[in-house]
């Protein structure tokens, strides 16, 4: 799995434009809101957590199309499944690589972006605290959806249709943790969903990979 993760990181560096496109989309989409709603700090500070979360969710979807697609097309996926690592392990390694190349950079950019959206500085650490498990959940659910739609016709259309409904609870509790005066219950729900998805999502993705290659 370590070698597979390193392979994915090397490929992400080789195709750095895909990662850069997701990060640029995150920044550009978030900066559109002040133009549409005006620069008033009252409005922007109230909806800043929702803006950051929605833009992060959409940006995390962009690299998913190539997560398994390129390996499936050139036959590398068959070799990965025969390498001795279980199919769930392959999916989990892909998830880790996706988070390191997409989720973690989004987490780093979210803080300055929230400040730009007039979010109170005292709430920025809480926002980052919610995004840490939130981006991991987005990577887990996105990897599972990418594996389920692998080889299907119009997979680029099916993937968001499968992923977005699963990510709605993550979005709800992530925003609620920042905007509520009592963030602990929402944070615990995020942690519970991460604990549930951590073993189940790679197993489901692995089963979908085996079905796609048979």
Q: Can you lay out the helices and strands and say which pair or pack?
A:
Layout: H1 2-14, H2 16-37, H3 41-61, H4 65-74, H5 76-81, H6 87-116, H7 124-148, H8 155-179, H9 184-213
DSSP helical segment count: 9
Counted up, domains total 1
- What's the count of strands? 0
Helix content: over 70%
Order of helices and strands: HHHHHHHHH
What is the overall silhouette? globular
Distance between the termini: 22 Å
Decide which structural class fits the backbone.
mainly alpha
Amount of beta strand = under 5%
Radius of gyration in whole Å, from Cα? 18 Å
The average pLDDT value, as a whole number, equals 88
Ranges with pLDDT <50 over ≥5 residues? none
The main β sheet shows up as:
none
Structural write-up:
The structure is a single chain. The chain is mostly helical and 214 residues long. The chain has one domain. 85% of the residues lie in helices and 0% in strands. It is built from nine helices and no strands. The protein is globular, with a radius of gyration of 18 Å. The two termini are 22 Å apart. 39% of the residues are buried.
Brief overview:
The protein is mainly α and 214 residues long. The protein has helices spanning 2-14, 16-37, 41-61, 65-74, 76-81, 87-116, 124-148, 155-179, 184-213.
